[in-house]
Amino acid sequence: MRTMNKALDAGPGQRPMPMPLAEQARFALALTAGKTAAAAARILGVGGGTSLPGSIARRIDPQVLQKVADASDVCKIFVTGSNGKTTTCRMLAALAHAGGLSVTQNRSGSNLLQGVISTALRGADLRGRMDAQLLLLEVDEGTVGRVIPELRPDTFAVTNIFRDQLDRFGELYSMARQLQSVIDVLPGSATAVLNGDDPLVASLAAGATARSMFYGIQADHAGEQVPEHAADTIRCVRCQHELSYRVVHLSHLGDYSCPECGHARPALDVAVTAIHPSPQGGSDIAVQTPAGDIELRVPLPGLHNVYNAAAALTCALASFPRPIDPALARRALAGVRPAFGRLEQIQAGEHQVTLAFVKNPTSYNTTLREVLHRPGRKHVVAAHSNTVVDGEDFAWLWDVDLEQLVPQLASLTVSGTRAEEVALRFKYAGADPSVTQVIPDRAAALQTALRKPPPGEDLYIFAGYTPMRELRGVMQRQGWVRPSWEE
Q1: Residue intervals in the chain for CATH 3.90.190.20
Q2: pLDDT tens column, 258-307
Q3: DSSP state for residue 240 in the 8-state scheme
């Protein structure tokens, strides 16, 4: 297992300089305060201690995260990207546990700076030392640049780059430049794990000192040869000529090349070579790796989860100290369940509810395709808000294929702080006003929507991050779901 220098002022073979007593006292106070806040939050049931402890600890000691990293000999894996972070980390944690590795991770999905610090504190003792062998963190794309200098990863994975929260992240190339600046400072002992099927992500390794590993889909399943209308990266990253695709798997992800300059998808280190629908749901896949071929069962539906499984497997190959046992890996992945809000199945009284977190055109369209494959009419709650973490710009809704949902739409309840705007989008998609109800309050919207499906018909909730957490909170108080931090 690769480890990195434990202090910025420690050269090769040198031990970090001991902290002055005042610094030690500040660090100890930050650890104690953070752990006390986490315990109080869990006892009071207010958030599970996923963010507040980090905020408190950092206020006391701004260097608390770096000090935990310096005190601990733990392999660190970061996963970032527009979509798939939470599920990829769950899959990777399952592979780690199957391999006998202990893991500390932000399983609740709290991936901003305070959530990362809270996770590190939870895994550390009062001296700041972590007992886990693996620190696994999903990190918000806009937060990575703040975390890297303090908590230097051994493996850094980028799942994809899609148009997402333009008011927070900027346009695609702006986000790519930020991520490339992170990869550029990784040392040669680190590994960048990149989705080779994403033209922009695959370009991030150019000139990097760190080793790079590319993953993707090489299977010749029934795909398209032209990206969908809402696809984002459709031009060559080198010459800006329109890309040509041998096959498109999802949005702009696929086997691409540039007919003008010859730039093409890199050779894949980890390649999914076969995909077959599993009788139990999800997919059975064959994967070609440097360690040999592996057959896996991905229990979650959709090609996006095949990508997530490939990303997790590549990170495991890059980071784990021992070879992966194929049988254990298959059993581990087969047991992975959806993260909260990711097509999560909830029994809400007499009704079955599917809760789907959707935040950009690609995630929404991918989710819609999965839902539309299911039989029966669709009773829908669409809830979106314009908080800082949700993004204020909702122009992306016009690239969501809501027109495909309308023919199956039995009832529609629209909620959130942008309910009227979302209702207008559905109106232009052709939704019948007589089956549409606008109820901005999330609890009232859920209560109303649950009365609409007759016996045998499900309720589907498509929600942005904040409304998803709010609606799930309502269901938690009803006893229908466990808190997200316990999932």
Answers
A1: 342-486
A2: 999 999 999 999 999 999 998 888 999 999 999 999 999 999 999 999 99
A3: -
Q: What would the pLDDT profile of 120-177 be if each residue is shown by its tens digit?
A: 999 999 889 998 999 999 998 888 988 988 889 999 999 999 886 555 555 788 888 8
Rounded to whole angstroms, the Cα distance separating 313 from 213 reads 11
Q: Residue 13's CB: how many other CB atoms inside 10 A?
A: 6
| Residues 432-441 pLDDT 10s | 999 999 999 9
> Which runs of consecutive H residues, i.e. helices, occur in 185-302?
199-202
> Based on the number of CB atoms within 10 Å of its own CB, is 21 exposed (0-12), middle (13-18) or buried (19 or more)?
exposed
Give the angle 193-284-227 at the CA atoms, nearest 5°.
Answer: 60
| CA distance readout (Å), 307 to 303, 304, 312, 324, 328 | 6, 5, 9, 19, 20
**What is the predicted pLDDT for the residue at 390?**
81
Question: For residues 410 and 453, what is the distance between their CA atoms, to the nearest angstrom?
Answer: 8
Listed in sequence order, the residues at least 6 apart from 283 whose beta carbon sits closer than 8 Å to its beta carbon are 275, 276, 277, 297, 298, 301, 305, 306
Nearest-angstrom CA–CA distance, 321 and 343: 33
Ranges of CATH 3.40.1190.10 domains, the chain = 74-104+131-334
Q: Does domain 74-104+131-334 have CATH number 3.40.1190.10?
A: yes
Architecture of domain 342-486 in CATH? Alpha-Beta Complex (3.90)
